[in-house]
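[Solved] Which block belongs to which protein?

Original post:
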Amino acid sequence: MAGRDDRQLLARLREGDADAFDALVQRHHARFVRLARLFVSTDASAEEVVQDTWVAVLDGLDAFEERSSLQTWISRILVNRAKTKGVREARMTPFSALGDGEREDGPEPAVDPARFDDKGMWSVPPLTWDDDTPERLVGNREMMQLLEDELRRLPERQRIVVVLRDTLGWTADEVCNALEINETNQRVLLHRARSRLRARLEAHVAKR
């Protein structure tokens, strides 16, 4: 549901407060362009989707029922428009038809089986992060670049789900509704994406 800050901002937007709208655009525009780019073929197309989204937001403010945050509502509008444009560009098939990155001999394991002994115990345990806490890693430019590079290498379904969940903060239900997948599929895709990203970060930290 919309919080107090959202309700105050929404009231200003509905009153036609141009400064409030400009502040909203400045806060989210770049992030929304990155999100749209997951679905469309060019940066120009992503920018077009976001511009169309802002117009739709202004047109739909009175219809917003505040059952989610304002950001989530806008993001949902953007994703729907980006999906439609992506299909028109023939850049992507419907989300449900995209590959998961699974191998022909079955799903890729989240953890390399070679890291376990014949009793199922760790032979190569997870790296201890010590001072490299997740918060510090996120603040590290080098690590952020590594994450961005690895995100681009993820299978498309995994990449979209992990960006929606971990970058934009969508709930599982919001992702399932926007992408038209069930909760189990969402959970599996998110787990695989997070496992791959963590493995790459772990390997990078181990070399330092």
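(Second protein starts here: sequence line, then its structure tokens.)
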Amino acid sequence: MRVLVGPQTDDLEELYAAPRRPWLRVNMVGSVDGAATGESGRSGSLNNAADKRVFDHLRSTADVIVVGAGTARAEGYRPTDRPIVVVSRRGESPVTLRGAAPGSVLVEPLGDPVVFKQSLVDRGWTHILCEGGPTLLGDLLAGGVVDELCTTTVPRLVGGPYPRMVQGSPVDVPLRLHTLLETDGTLLARWLV
């Protein structure tokens, strides 16, 4: 792993440290041509070893994982060692998360993004990791509650009608590059909002 911009270290703990709490970080993967999924309809079809390394690190440092219901269904989310909040308009938990230990999977509507984020903080979850999907990311950006966007750009072109990282109403959110890593052509960026 080579650091192109940011602290000159390969220590992910230092590279991805949250500067304050509460902190809402979103982690997304995409192809060079902007697709957020591959032909399987899952972001997992784009992942590679570099993305997996950062994905695992971000999960290990989060207090809670937030994910849209559609993404949780498509990706086959399963219970983890972190609580999962599934954002659902219909209030339904994906089948793969049903039967999880009490309190380990919560299903909630997004509603007002500011109120939603504060409800997580009020539960003591001050290091929040959102793993998408594109519509939820668009809603969180529009609501002004995202502190950081971590992106992995895999060295692939996929074409086709696949969704982009952000879907929904147009947003115009300026970003500031904090860190850029490169490994075997994969670019891992940390953008501050």
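Accepted answer:
You had them paired correctly. Confirming on the second one: Residues 49-61 form the longest helix (13 residues).
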